């Protein structure tokens, strides 16, 4: 993922995108809303935290903090590492264009230098923690999983 202003890349990070059965909608969209502390409304996973939520395409699709794996694994959202989500939330505004594509002009230069992230080995936090307010407090402090 790249956040760009003019020709300058302001932020670049590996992200996780939608799996084949629920792809991230390709095309040019706009940020339609931002919510710092949001919870998933639909099943499965209602109540799951989607911190630093920035919706695009429709209210059900957005970018947010979550596990990042090196393969398509989401229900259509774009999941970002915690520090990336915090920075992106501060940089973008409602109305900011979002271009979802398989390739971007910066892939061969900036993208080639990004680390490959795989949060798969991390333990799943207990649901009691994930549904508590502490998950938001920890995220605001830049901490992950202090259960």
TrEMBL record:
Gene3D superfamilies: L,D-transpeptidase catalytic domain-like
Compositional bias (Basic residues): 27-41
GO cellular component: extracellular region
Superkingdom of origin: Bacteria
Pfam families named in the record: YkuD
Gene Ontology molecular function: peptidoglycan L,D-transpeptidase activity; transferase activity
InterPro entries: LD-transpeptidase, LD_TPept_cat_dom, Transpep_catalytic_dom
L,D-TPase catalytic domain mapped to chain residues: 1-101
Pathway note: Cell wall biogenesis; peptidoglycan biosynthesis
Chain residue ranges for the region called Disordered: 18-44
Catalytic residue list: 64, 77
Single GO biological process annotation from the record: cell wall organization
Keyword entries, A-Z: Cell shape, Cell wall biogenesis/degradation, Peptidoglycan synthesis, Transferase
Keyword Transferase: yes
PANTHER family attached to this UniProt entry: L,D-TRANSPEPTIDASE, L,D-TRANSPEPTIDASE YCIB-RELATED
Similarity comment text for this entry: Belongs to the YkuD family.
Protein name per its UniProtKB record: L,D-TPase catalytic domain-containing protein
């Amino acid at each position: 993922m790249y956040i760009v202003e003019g020709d300058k890349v302001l932020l670049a990070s590996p992200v996780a995108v939608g799996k084949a059965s629920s792809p991230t909608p390709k095309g040019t969209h706009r940020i339609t809303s931002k919510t710092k502390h949001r919870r998933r409304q639909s099943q499965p996973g209602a109540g799951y935290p989607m911190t630093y939520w920035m919706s695009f395409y429709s209210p059900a699709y957005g970018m947010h903090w979550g596990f990042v794996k090196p393969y398509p694994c989401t229900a259509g959202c774009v999941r970002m590492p915690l520090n990336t989500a915090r920075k992106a939330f501060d940089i973008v505004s409602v109305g900011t264009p979002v271009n979802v594509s398989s390739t971007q002009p910066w892939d061969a230069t900036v993208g080639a230098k990004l680390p490959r992230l795989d949060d798969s080995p991390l333990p799943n936090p207990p649901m009691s923690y994930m549904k508590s307010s502490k998950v938001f407090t920890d995220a605001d402090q830049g901490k992950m999983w202090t259960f």
